[in-house]
Amino acid sequence: MSEPLFFNPVFKDRIWGGTALRSFGYEIPSESTGECWAFSAHPHGQSVVKNGPLAGKNLEQLWENHRALFGNMEGDRFPLLTKILDANQDLSVQVHPNDDYAKVHENGELGKTECWYIIDCQDGAEIIFGHHARTKDELAAMIAENRWDELLNKVPVKKGDFFFVPSGTIHAIGEGIIILETQQNSDTTYRVYDYDRRDAEGNTRELHIEQSINVTTVPHQLAATSPSVEQQGDIEITSFVECDYFTVEKWSLDGKATKEQNQAFLLCSVIEGDGSLTKSGEEYAFQKGDHFLLPNKFGAFELKGKAELIVSFI
Fold first, then answer.
1. What secondary structure, in 3-state letters, does 5-26 show?
2. Cβ atoms of 289 and 261 closer than 8 Å
């Protein structure tokens, strides 16, 4: 296929959500919209192609029936899920299992290793990233005794920061942060702590203490990354992480650049600015909030404009 596939995202109402996703040009469904599932083939929400001959088909259908778009990759499900999150309030403190644990305990679901790019944040914003327990017994005791200030590791953040969050990492996105999250195609989350808050019906949300203790890496292992930067014409490419599950880059375009798509596929999310992609004489405009997939054997293309994109692939 010689044209990019643009996708309509799926939106999720969350107790901690707000209205910041409107800044991406989205018509969000509520005043507490927390998540935009931009590229999703998960049963809990499917993003749908909005252009070309495949318009109306969801990502799971493409994976099942048009595998050549992905270089005929093997696997029983599309491997990635891309989200934009608006943390209008603090998210719960949580942890995700690895593949082996999820397969046994979550009906064959994948585990969840993820990463975050901070699109924007309020002054003084912070995340929870890791913990201070030295043993599983100490972790269990600190949770049981509500010693959250002692247990949780808080990290200040700023726009442009990047964090790699492997499965087993206790974490939480703090109030006033907008992130783009690249993750495994999984919706399994174990809540450790939710600030004792209640929903509109006055109910607290379910916690998963036993599972959380089982899957948390103890002691915490800092998954540090060392971004590298390369200039290609008028595009600066920052490589944030390359792991077993994904590679994630930021493309900062200011002018014109020629690129070659030689991966199984590329997932491209426009987080700032606008521009166009030209392939075989056809021009496709894009702007902040757009998400497009470049399929296998897409080949050479030209980018023009002033924009920032987060790009992921396997």
1. EEEECEEEEEEEEECHHHHHCC
2. no
Catalytically annotated residues: 191
Q: Would the pLDDT of 198 be above 90? A: no
Tokens 């507490």 — which residue? 32
Evaluated on CA atoms 252, 258, 263, 264, the torsion sign reads: positive
* pTM to 2 decimal places: 0.96
250-273 confidence digits (pLDDT tens): 999 999 999 999 999 999 999 999
**DSSP states of 118-147:** EEEE-TT-EEEEEE--SSHHHHHHHHHTT-
Q: What angle do CA 105, 106, 110 make, to 5 degrees?
A: 115
Query: Which DSSP category does 173 fall into?
Result: P
Q: Count how many Cα atoms sit within 13 Å of the Cα of residue 156 in the half-sphere of its side chain.
A: 4
93/16 Cα distance (integer angstroms): 12
Q: What angle do CA 100, 240, 236 make, to 5 degrees?
A: 150
Q: Give residue-wise pLDDT tens across range 184-194.
A: 999 999 999 99
pLDDT in tens, 73-96: 999 999 999 999 999 999 999 999
Q: What are residue 214's phi and psi, to 5 degrees?
A: -60, -40
Q: What is the mean pLDDT of residues 67-72?
A: 97
Q: Which residues of 158-183 are buried (b: 16+ CB within 10 A; e: fewer)?
A: eeebbbbbbbbbbbbbbbbbbbbbbb
Q: How far is residue 121 CA from its own chain's centroid?
A: 16
Q: Residues for the chain: how many in total?
A: 314
Is the per-residue pLDDT at 151 higher than 90? yes
